[in-house]
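Reproducibility note. Readers wishing to regenerate the assembly model reported in the main text can use the exact inputs given here. Chain order matters: entities are listed in the order in which they were concatenated for prediction.
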Amino acid sequence: MTEMNADQVLDCKGLNCPLPVIKTKKAIDGMEPGQILKMVATDPGSKNDITAWASRTGNELLSGDQTDEGYVYFIKKS
Amino acid sequence: MSEPKRKRLAIIASQGTLDWAYPPFLLASTAAAMDMEVGVFFTFYGLTLLNKEIDVKVAPQTNPAMPMKMPFGPKGFQNIEWPIPNILANNIPGYETMATAFMKKTFAKKGVASIEDLREMCVDMGVRLIGCQMTMDVFGFGEDQFIDGVELGGAATFLEFAADSDISLFI
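Running the prediction on these inputs yields the following structure tokens for the assembly.
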């Protein structure tokens, strides 16, 4: 899995659509451009949804991996 | 450099049941999170979704495909789909209230936000909530029963917003 330093960590485990996307958006809004958010989710739908959200909003999805912890995403704020 | 024009989503929310309350708020909040400009026009029974206290139920008798499962007990028990015939569902007193409670409980257990939470997120993210003036007059609703921030308008108000939308949905 990809491991990198995150400026902020967001736990979306146990949450279902569309909460991981909305909480990710709120977290990103509070961050500075270039900073990295680590988001962890258990919703399998988050894989496609976070990809779609990132592509629409222009934030960069650096990686998305399925780990023991859940689905782990690293997102760089644009 | 000028900012690119934001995508716009226009929704008509016409239904006042728990199951049908989800799509407008869910899509509106997600679209807002995707930086889209969103407006929802609440008309007919959908207007009740703007009440300070949302009181909506799910009607199993009009949703024959609705799975009836128990939100408690051992996993095997929860997975049983109860074959409840419509003739019973329509006539057991309190059946609708029970089905509503079960749906809310199941949704909460699965990590799905409540309607109230989704609506609050819509308000936070600047979704335009437009209440239908005509429906208010017909049903005898007052503006003071709605949450703050609701705009009032009619078909033309919605269409003016929807005319420049990229996505338009009737729910």
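We highlight two features of this model. DSSP finds seven helices and five strands in chain B. The first strand of chain B starts at residue 8 and ends at 13.
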